[in-house]
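Teaching soon. Got one?

===
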Amino acid sequence: GPSISANLPTGTITSTSATISAQYSDAVSAIDTSSVVLKLDGTAVSGAAVTSTGISYSATGLSQGSHSVLLTVKDSPGNPAILNWSFKVDSLGPSISANLPTGTITSTSASIGASYSDATSPIDTSSVALKLDGTAVSGATVTSTGVSYSAAGLSNGNHTVELTVKDVVGNQATLT
């Protein structure tokens, strides 16, 4: 039967649009292009470009999360080849909440903290960047769910805190 290779996409993509494609061949017989069936999440797709060597389909509006692809190909004598694969869509950055402190404090020190999460991919803890008044802070405690920092020696007046967090596929969120 035929062999199927070069299937895309795989892994995690950061767009809700993707070209789903694969290459196929048969060392003995020709591919029966009328037998080629591509299913995305269990539903046969229409409008795919089918040739004697491959298939390509432009998917748009993909939802966040995992997607499955099933490709069935037969050669001219009817020998089948089937390939299943999956990929994940993660185009949203992490959520950041509980930014502390807020309002007016009456001390020259403050506890600064925030929590973050991502619905689709883990947080890249090495990407967590906390700035106080535009300067990166050192000594902050960073975990996979949040950051905390004890600021001391604050002067009177307004201060700004900026937190930037990325997930492992590179989606970013920033809170000021």
The chain has a mean pLDDT of 94. The CA atoms of residues 93 and 173 lie 5 Å apart.
